[in-house]
């Protein structure tokens, strides 16, 4: 079996011990009823002469008086929204649609006993975005290099195994329940790198997709599919995949019609085109708007959408060529296309201009395309943030991105790359579950506080946690992203990881490669000059005043200094430290903090199940080892280059 | 089909146009007869009233008068030796045994018309060593990382494919013929890293080994097998593989008896023990002499030998630990065991103390074990010397090793790791055939001149080569090893290759790894201090005066300077150049020379078959590209570290 994650039976204790009535009809309402029944069965209670909890669709007839009163006061709820109130000993959840009722139910679970205490004034909850989606980079066939799940650190796929549908519907249903409980309502079921077998999910293997969609539907989750832009050629046998070719357009229309005949609530397509070897419209001299609109037009009759990734760059760059800057690529390719995309084409932009590093500036694309629907892509799978061997709670980073002023109001939805696999703990590292949970909550409300979300996750996952456990979890997780940043690549410069695996340090690992990911460290200094004055001009992609802030050596934030500037090792940061001393200090501190995290976890012994305790302890051992390796390699590298000794005389190898 | 390598029909023209008689009996003599028949058939001649060539075993009765006269004058020939003379228009080859007759025949082929010209005084040829062996690192199963052939750059294996015997006996026979023609008489048929399937070649899959042995036997080649030291446990189900355990000794005795019942002329075992994860005697607290003698005792009743590799070192070293020196490992492990090995145990020592780098000092083990039979292991497969994408004729390097004074007379035989695969050209790069040919000739006579061997190879492979072709081949191949050295890691320091693949530059690629292969470059200098005075003490493993020569910064040869010393970039070499300027100069020169090699090959257009021309041209294109990449990465790396500009102001990135 698998770990209950944030839905252990104990989390339903308050609900299960109440007398509850559900008003409404339909499949999702039945899911709500079954959740209530399960909770009652688990707590073995639910008695009492009157109802404690009324869960009602606002269209249900007749509505009980308590619910009707709420309806009279609540505003527009929308299909996924709900209102909650408690009056005279009755808690009422009134929903604008079946999905809203499900979300309302899980909100009651989150509230626990406090949903049944003192009276609560009416409050309404509506998701900030209509779609909250996770992308699975799951392969159907085991890829010879990337395996069953590309950049997956939680075992195999819950959908696919060794070339076929895995068929474990119980696991998929349990997954859907977890997703619904944090507000996620869409998944892409296969990797954006679409190989030969995966391409056929669109056609003769569509039945597998239907099976997943049927299993997830009771939790309000729609299934999307990653497709290859070359499908008309590789699947349809056409001589071209040119988006302006009539035969191609007909092929996509027919293929899409078949998909909707099979899966009426199919979500849409996800496409990685002209990116790292995937086919795309460039081959035909067409723009990415032409490419995206081709699929958007095929999907429009059915209400589907295409997510079109903006991750387009030259991955065969010559490291000798200092004028090419990978950070510029997405903006250079896409900003000129603003306004040219269909309404149901969503441009999916990674949150930073590079590739999910622990610290990047926010992608300038997001501020640059006001006439385009944008999704911001986050990465729950910890490709560059410790691969679920390191505890690294990412929500604080994501919140910083979403609160960046030029970004606010400029994106339509959030998408995350999934960190889930068939591992018993779902995410390898049990604490990495919090990243998936937090993503769902931020996708529902990007303004939510990441530490409040962490509290929610703790209360659900470890119901009624003893105070020492809560404190230990906060001590480990609150600052874990910044700790990870401290012991890895400094001051926003990024990478310095082992090529290929992306795990562990290799300071020069990408320095002379075609990947466009360099730090340019020499004996005098380090960093990438991306200024307009003397560098690649990337700073000019930001609106004022940010373009000037980043351009200015004085005003650029410390944590992004080496992303934007090449500076001498003696350059003094706003913090008062020199760059070289900052490197030493943060790396010694980061490794120490990793050791402290491990020490704090010892306090959780006996307060969590033994399997959880052991798994986390093992991973913290590896985190401590790895953090020391990062510390020693990075410090040795920069000492050998700079010759500057550590001001505190600590050991550098 | 496959390329004829150094045995094209044209190479047999002089032989085939003569009237030849063969005296003697047996399978190898039949092979000689069939070679003569094939040559005559190819040239369509062979007429004349008397014999031009007499090939005779010295035990044949009756011997013709010409041969009897040679026998009267020739000394002891031994089982593989032969005498050659030409008198009164008759060429005589008199052999001490069937294999000698075969070698004598191929010697006549090498001589061509000059075997049939003026009279030749009697000359005798005997191999310097009784065994001349190539080790195939061929896997039976395709290894998930290493593939069908570990470190193989010539396609698949000629013996194995996808988990089974390949069954292409014609190809194996053709291979045996090529080996015999350059004097090789033994092969190990599987990789020294013995995985699960390969282990069973010793037992239930022995039939496959027999098939190979049967196919190679007509060319005088005996088959050896790589075995796992853990065989009694993994194959025999015993609770231990302890070499002093009686059950283990009985198991090996019985297993070996079955091998010889199946293959009466089986050569013996090859073992990689306690090395890079392979099992060995250390697990039982036993010495490597105990381990080797276990197998030697099992093989002794049948005249078999065990080759026991000395490649034992800590491959999980901590890069922070400056006191551990991989170069010391083989000597530290094995020198104390001198005199403890059985007569039929052969300690197989890599020619350098590290691992087949383009430049290393000679292994001090070779001079340190006078009471042990040693084989010097060379690597024809170009793992670190361009992987058969670069032309790199290795015989000059091997000759330098073999001529190193403390080594002369201290080794009993030569072994090479094979560079052959199922590629149509056998070795990927057609010019890499010369490395296998030259190995065979050096194993027969370690004093042979590598450039004379190259001439032999050219004359056989491109019969009657036009002078421009001969000159182009010499221009490309003579100095190709030194050219490769110039554009790769400088002054003997080694590595600086991409981890894993070992192809292409990555200066820091191994610098912070557990492999023990470091250069310690910092902003002030570079190199490994292996002196007794201040370093790891490795110099002390050499006998005087070499220990003092290497210890001395003044006397250490330039080409090994950074192997033995850590020096500032401004250190002045014997050449008069500084270390940093030497790095720049050699890298610019090496890349230029690669471009010159390509230019010279253009002169071969129309003078060699088109497929040979095209294959070599493609590889030279890659060599030029790769040499420029090496040049630019190494120069950029050391410029960034040292800050010293190139004295000639050339472009450094």
From TrEMBL, chains A, B:
- Keywords (A to Z) from UniProt: Hydrolase
Ranges of residues in domain Glycosyl hydrolase family 67 C-terminal: 427-650
Gene Ontology biological process terms from the UniProt entry? xylan catabolic process
GO molecular function list: alpha-glucuronidase activity; xylan alpha-1,2-glucuronosidase activity
Instruction: Tell me the domain of life.
Output: Bacteria
Residues forming the Glycosyl hydrolase family 67 catalytic domain are 124-407
**Is Hydrolase given among the entry's keywords?**
yes
Which SUPFAM superfamilies does the entry link to? (Trans)glycosidases (SSF51445), beta-N-acetylhexosaminidase-like domain (SSF55545)
An example Gene Ontology CC term for this record: extracellular region
Q: Is Hydrolase there in the keyword field?
A: yes
Q: What protein name does the entry list?
A: Xylan alpha-(1->2)-glucuronosidase
């Amino acid at each position: 079996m698998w770990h209950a994650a944030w839905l252990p039976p104990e989390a339903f204790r308050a609900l299960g011990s109440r007398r509850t009535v559900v008003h409404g009809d339909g499949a999702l309402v039945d899911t709500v009823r079954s959740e209530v029944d399960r909770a009652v069965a688990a707590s073995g209670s639910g008695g009492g002469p009157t109802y404690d909890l009324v869960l009602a669709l606002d269209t249900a007839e007749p509505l009980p008086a308590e619910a009707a009163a709420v309806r009279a006061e609540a505003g527009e709820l929308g299909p996924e929204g709900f209102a909650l109130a408690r009056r005279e000993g009755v808690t009422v959840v009134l929903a604008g649609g079946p999905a809203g009722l499900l979300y309302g139910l899980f909100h009651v679970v989150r509230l626990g006993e406090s949903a049944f205490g003192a009276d609560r004034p009416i409050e309404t909850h509506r998701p900030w975005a209509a779609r909250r989606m996770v992308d699975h980079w799951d392969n159907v066939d085991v890829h010879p290099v990337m395996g069953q799940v590309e950049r997956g650190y939680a075992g195999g796929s819950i959908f696919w195994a060794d070339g076929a549908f895995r068929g474990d519907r119980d696991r998929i249903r349990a997954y859907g329940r977890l997703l619904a409980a944090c507000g996620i309502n869409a998944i892409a079921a296969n990797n954006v790198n679409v190989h030969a077998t995966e391409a056929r999910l669109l056609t003769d293997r569509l039945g597998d997709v239907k099976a997943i969609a049927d299993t997830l539907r009771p939790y309000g989750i729609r299934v999307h599919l990653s497709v290859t832009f070359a499908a008309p050629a590789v699947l349809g046998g056409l001589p071209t995949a040119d988006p302006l070719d009539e035969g191609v357009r007909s092929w996509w229309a027919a293929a899409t019609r078949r998909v909707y005949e099979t899966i009426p609530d199919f979500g849409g397509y996800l496409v990685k085109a002209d990116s790292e070897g995937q086919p795309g419209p460039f081959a035909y001299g067409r723009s990415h708007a032409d490419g995206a609109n081709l699929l958007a037009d095929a999907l429009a009759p059915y209400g589907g959408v295409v997510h079109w990734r903006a991750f387009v760059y030259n991955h065969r760059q010559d490291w000798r060529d200092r004028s090419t800057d990978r950070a510029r690529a997405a903006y250079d390719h896409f900003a000129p296309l603003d306004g040219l995309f269909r309404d149901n084409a969503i441009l999916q932009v990674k949150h930073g201009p590079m590739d999910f590093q622990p610290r990047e500036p926010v992608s300038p694309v997001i501020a640059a395309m006001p006439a385009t629907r944008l999704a911001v892509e986050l990465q729950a799978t910890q490709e560059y943030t410790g691969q679920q061997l390191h505890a690294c709670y990412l929500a604080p980073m994501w919140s910083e991105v979403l609160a960046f002023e030029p970004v606010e109001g400029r994106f339509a939805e959030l998408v995350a790359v999934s960190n889930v696999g068939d591992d018993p703990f779902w995410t390898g590292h049990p604490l990495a579950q919090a990243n998936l949970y937090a993503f769902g909550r931020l996708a529902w409300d990007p303004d939510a506080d990441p530490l409040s979300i962490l509290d929610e996750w703790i209360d659900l996952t470890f119901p009624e946690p003893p105070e020492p456990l809560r404190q230990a979890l906060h001590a480990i997780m609150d600052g874990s992203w910044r700790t990870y940043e401290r012991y890895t690549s400094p001051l926003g410069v990024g990478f310095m990881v082992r090529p290929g695996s992306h795990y562990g340090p290799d300071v020069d690992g990408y320095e002379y490669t075609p990947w466009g990911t360099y730090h340019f460290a020499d004996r005098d200094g380090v960093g990438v000059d991306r200024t307009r004055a003397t560098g690649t001009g990337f700073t000019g992609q930001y609106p004022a005043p940010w373009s000037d802030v980043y351009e200015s050596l004085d005003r650029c934030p410390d944590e992004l200094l080496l992303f934007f500037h090449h500076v001498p090792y003696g350059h003094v940061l706003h913090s008062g430290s020199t760059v070289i001393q900052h490197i030493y200090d943060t790396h010694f501190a980061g490794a120490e903090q990793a050791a402290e995290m491990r020490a704090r976890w010892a306090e959780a012994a006996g307060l969590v199940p033994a399997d959880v305790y052991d798994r986390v302890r093992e991973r913290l051992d590896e985190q401590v080892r790895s953090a020391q390796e990062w510390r020693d390699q990075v410090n040795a590298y920069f000492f050998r280059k700079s010759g500057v000794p550590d001001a505190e005389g600590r050991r550098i190898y």
